[in-house]
Amino acid sequence: IFSGSLDIHKKSERKKLTIFFSDIVDFTSISEQIEAEEISEFLSFYLTEMSAIAEKFGGTIDKFIGDSVMVFFGDPDTKGAQEDAIACCHMAMEMLNFLESNQQNFQDMYNFPEKLEIRMGIHNGLCNVGNFGSAQRLDYTAIGRAVNVASRLEQAAPKNSILVSSAVRNLIKSKFETSSPIEVKAKGIDKPIA
After folding, report:
1. 53: Cβ–Cβ under 8 A, 6 or more apart, which residues?
2. pLDDT at 141
3. For residue 91, what pLDDT is reported?
4. What three-state secondary structure class fits 65?
5. pTM (2 decimals)?
6. CB 22, CB 163: distance < 8 Å
7. CA-to-CA distance for 28 and 109, rounded, in angstroms?
């Protein structure tokens, strides 16, 4: 925007993206048991680390919603749908590994009462991506059914796991082993998600 190479008034574009959501399991109840300052320090540390991992794999950090993270692959740069999906899954694995290897630090530094666990959901599909908002404030973001599906997969994921849609599974099967397919019935989505 500052360089003038991006027109902020440009309409959104329809693109195929790989969308990732994660959140910390039971974060609200955990935060009730810890001082506000410690929660703020922890969130700053956690989101900084998650952002560094996302950037390492070429993800676009869309937003933070409390402890939740939304990242997408495929805009503004893409290596193609398959490579984007593979990079997203590598990113998710590294985030899980980071969490596992820092459990003791979380308890020592932030007095966490229990083990931190996260859920992740990944979907690939068509989205509208661009600048959305009001005349006073714009957000560069992705919207559409594919974003909603990724969010619902994250909500349905078991603790410390990554739930991917069949669209993602088809793109990553040469690089990742996945468990048996299931169907997820999700609020607001007309058909079960494979």
Report:
1. 91, 94, 95, 98
2. 92
3. 98
4. strand
5. 0.91
6. no
7. 19
pLDDT tens, the chain, 194 aa long = 556 666 666 667 899 999 999 999 998 888 888 888 888 999 999 999 999 999 999 999 999 998 999 999 999 899 999 999 999 999 999 999 999 999 888 888 887 777 889 999 999 999 999 888 877 788 889 999 999 999 999 999 999 999 999 999 999 999 999 998 888 887 777 788 88
Q: Tokens representing 9?
A: 């008034």
What is the spatial distance between Cα 116 and Cα 150, in angstroms, rounded to a whole number?
22
Q: Spell out a b/e string for 16-34, using b for 16 or more CB atoms within 10 Å of the CB, else e.
A: bbbbbbbbbbebeebbeee
88 CA to centre of own chain: 9
- DSSP H helical segments within the chain, as ranges? 27-32, 36-56, 81-101, 103-110, 145-156, 166-172
Question: Parallel, antiparallel, or unpaired: how do β-strands 60-65 and 161-164 relate?
Answer: unpaired
Position 7: which residue type? D
The CA–CA distances, whole Å, from 134 to 51, 59, 130, 190 equal 26, 25, 13, 30
Give me the phi and psi of 108, to 5 degrees please.
Answer: -70, -45
Distances (CA, A) of 114 to 10, 23, 25, 37: 47, 16, 11, 18
Residue corresponding to tokens 């935060």: 31
